[in-house]
Queue: 4 jobs
Job 1
Amino acid sequence: MTIRRGSPRKPFRGGGKNSARRGSDRGYPPKKVQSVRKRRLNLKRMTEFKWEINQLMNDLPENQRGTVKGSLIAKADKLDINAALDFVQLKIDEGVLSKDMADRIADLLLKFSTYR
């Protein structure tokens, strides 16, 4: 009587040196590719940043304050600090922000940023 190995549904396929189970096809996860690190807003200090930016933008009208603040936070968080600084420069050119306020916002962005 012979003992049959493996399941009865799947016949045993003996693998030699060139079997498909050898080498890179062993089910290992692919190697991770490191993404490019950018200078972005530090998420651990987000509440502090929002409080500081609210204190700076008290001089703006209510309808402009919310849109500028929201866009600034989104660009600094999702894209990078340079995109947020370009947005601040655009708002200076449109006349929404003064040069002094823009300088203080730029200092805040650099203070509350990290590479991630």
Job 2
Amino acid sequence: MFLRHEKEISPRHFITSHCGGSCTKSRQTIPKGAIAVRPFNKEKYLGKWYEIARFDYRFEENLNNVTATYSLNDDGTIRVDNRGYDVEKNKWKESIGKAKPGGDPDEAKLKVSFFGPFYAPYNVIAIDDDYKYALVAGKNLDYLWLLSREKTMPENIKVDYIKKAQQLGYKTEKLVWVEHDR
């Protein structure tokens, strides 16, 4: 859920988020075989999400207690506020960005940016009817997140999402399971 940009603010830091370090103008926006959720209710997706598991990469390294809070901006884009606790540096990190539809607004394909005009794909490829649990993919098999409205996710949903990810070619044994203890 974190990207590249770092800037100190009081005891917190802005860091890049949910672009998964893939903020480029690549043509590929979703892994082969993956399909973004349709219909997608942007308003129902707003609010706080807990990161349950992710593929690790340098921008989220050593982070636990990771959350993403989505809210609507005045211009219709979505404000993305990602936060996580760096267990090595013993401090919170935060990244503020924005998301907008990556095409058809009825489809869960978004573009997320945390700096400048560079956007990365953010694809919700599974979500329950109540919008409590989500499986999110980046542009390729290097980026994957399991998200929940709560600090935990029921085992049956974890199993379903992992199976779906494996069917797409994700190496789910590389998932990092995020602790929520703060």
Job 3
Amino acid sequence: MSGQIDSQAMFSRPSKKSHISTIKYEIRMLRFSLEWLTRNGATYQPEEELYAVLECFLLHYRNLVNFLSGKGGSSGDLSMAAPNRWADQKHDKTQIDVIQKMAGPVYASHSADISTYLAHCTRQRYEQSKQWRPGTMYDELLPAIAKFEELFCGQKQNAYVTSVLGDAEYGTTSMTKYSILDPPERILFIRGPKKD
């Protein structure tokens, strides 16, 4: 480590205005880390920066997949399974169920692995290597995220997207910009407002 460490420096994430803003922050950080990984690739140096951003992606991914599926987490966690604790508005149980069904298989595919390889110091981290495909993972969760944003954030997806198609290897993907599809299919991530 180069330079002096300022032991008095304090850091903080932004204060949240509501429980919804907590989820919006998770989505924002997931997209930020995915965009960084896509832009810089799997061979980025220094590798510590790459690992930090990959871990950021995995952390926010697990938080969102647990929230959207209504599974996992602990008693104080926000969850689609208990919308009365976080929803700022009336909610339709049918729509809640739709989001949970979209996110349920994604939870089953990834949440336990992320806990094993990221959240805890486990034997598997040495004994079994793990490769992550952030683009594919995001693609799997995007329909649930988009539905949540539409219903609870008032954000109908009027955006341009950057997409990674298929199961291209991480770090060697081709980037394509195109308009949003309805329903969202094969979309990797939303980058910002649609540009005229």
Job 4
Amino acid sequence: MNTEEPARSSEARTETGKTAPAAAQERVFVGTGLFWGLIVGVILAVAVIILAAQNTRTATISFLGWDFSTPLIVLILGSLLIGIVLDELFGLVYRRRRRRTLRDKDQLERLREEQ
């Protein structure tokens, strides 16, 4: 005798016989990841301290007739910061365009449904 429970489908049958997606399951989040975020933050801080300790030489930068002398770590971290800011700006533009496209698509679908 088979005592196993039959496999449940992720779709349910409606009155018309068509299948409809089952209700979405509620997501449960345990913890906030604070511990792992703290660990990663400490590792990155130690890496930056080591980087700063090993790159104390002065670098001279010439730009449009100006000459700057700065420690190499300032140059490295400044370049990193500029890269992060530019990445966020380009990401912001991309997300706005994507949202606008999706919003226009939703409006178009609603108009088609009304007809």
